[in-house]
Write a structure and sequence with these properties.
The protein is an alpha+beta fold and 95 residues long. It has 2 helices and 2 strands, in the order E-E-H-H.
């Protein structure tokens, strides 16, 4: 298990996970940047509110990425099916 420490606002957090050290650092920096960006846009919001808004932003991005991935997968499967049908047709025609 890997562990990293990150400072967001004036709070220190310890992030632990089975992922690589580099992955944990990338995650931590992404969260830190998002929270700091939200705080910069509205300096009166609390760290907790900025963290929650960041969580909502990330959740929205995940949902959009899943939808896009699903659409892409469907398009690839459809094209693969059409190609398979064409190959089968060509094989039948060659006999």
């Amino acid at each position: 298990m890997n562990t990293i420490d990150i400072l967001i606002g004036n709070q220190r957090y310890e992030l632990k996970g089975n992922e690589s050290q580099e992955h944990l650092e990338e995650v931590a920096q992404m969260v830190r940047r998002r929270v700091e960006s939200l705080k910069k846009k509205n300096s009166s919001i609390t760290l907790q509110k900025a963290a929650m808004l960041a969580a909502f932003d990330f959740a929205s991005e995940v949902i959009k990425a899943k939808k896009k991935s699903s659409e892409h997968r469907s398009a690839v499967l459809s094209k693969a099916q059409k190609l398979l049908e064409k190959v089968e047709w060509d094989l039948q025609s060659a006999r």
